[in-house]
């Protein structure tokens, strides 16, 4: 993986995840919102986080973005 391929992969992950979290908070869609809670007590602590669905969708999009980028790069070379 070269630098351009990494940049395409990372930027597509960050953009997709960020846009989905933004839409989730803007439209109050719980499955697209990120929230976290931390509760500490004498028995220990409890930590909960919000939806990770936008992150999973971002990973899928970045996987396909990298595959498309690599395929187009190979077509240009060969």
Q: Describe it for me?
A:
The chain is α+β, with helices and mostly antiparallel strands. The protein contains 2 helices and 2 strands. A two-stranded antiparallel ribbon has the order 1-2. Helix 1 (3-26) runs antiparallel to helix 2 (53-77). The chain is elongated, with a radius of gyration of 18 Å.
Shape: elongated
Q: How are strands sequenced across the largest beta sheet?
A: 1-2
The low-confidence parts are none
Strand content: 15-25%
What would you report as the Rg, rounded to the nearest angstrom?
18 Å
Structural class: alpha+beta
Count of extended strands: 2
Give the H and E element order: HEEH
Look at the structure and give the mean pLDDT: 91
Helix content: 55-70%
In DSSP terms, counting alpha (H) and pi (I) runs of 4 or more, how many helices? 2
Q: What is the element layout, followed by pairings?
A:
Layout: H1 3-26, E1 36-41, E2 44-49, H2 53-77
Short synopsis of the structure:
With 78 residues, the protein is α+β, with helices and mostly antiparallel strands. It has helices at 3-26, 53-77, and strands at 36-41, 44-49.
Primary descriptors:
single chain; 78 residues; alpha+beta; two-stranded antiparallel ribbon; 2 helices; 2 strands; 63% helix
């Amino acid at each position: 993986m070269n630098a351009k391929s990494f940049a395409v992969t990372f930027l597509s992950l960050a953009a997709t995840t960020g846009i989905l979290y933004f839409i989730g908070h803007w439209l109050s869609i719980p499955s697209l919102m990120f929230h976290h809670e931390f509760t500490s007590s004498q028995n220990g602590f409890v930590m909960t986080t919000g939806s990770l669905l936008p992150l999973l969708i971002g990973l899928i999009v970045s996987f396909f973005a990298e595959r498309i980028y690599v395929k187009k790069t190979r077509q240009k070379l060969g």
